[in-house]
Amino acid sequence: MDELHRRIEADDLRFGLFLGDQIYADVEKQNGLGRIAVTLEEYRAVYEYAWSRPAMRALLPDLPLFMTLDDHEVDDDWHWRDAERRWADIPLAQ
User: 10 Å Cβ neighbour count for 31?
Assistant: First the structure.
């Protein structure tokens, strides 16, 4: 976000698009919790952590950002099959 902030004027940026994956609640090393988020409160805490980081807070007033939600941000319809996170199960729509 710091680099993006530096490029606003040079590249005449007018807005930014976030196209899904706004947070990674299942990446415990970087989600601010130190564990995989599973409850509503934990998911909210991960969003709060992500959006309150200094680089993001500096960027938000200077560049309008528009977001679209990714499928798994609307419907928690998948899970990891193994601890190494190599294989996921995603049920097909019925």
Answer: 21
Sorted by sequence, the CB contacts under 8 Å of residue 88 that are 6+ apart come out as 78, 79, 80, 81
Going from N- to C-terminal start, the domains of the chain cover 2-69
> Are the CB atoms for 52 and 1 separated by under 8 Å?
no
Q: How does the average pLDDT of the chain come out, rounded?
A: 84
- pLDDT given for residue 33 in this prediction: 93
Amino acid at 44: R
What pTM did the predictor assign? 0.65
Q: Over 50: is that where the pLDDT of 94 sits?
A: no
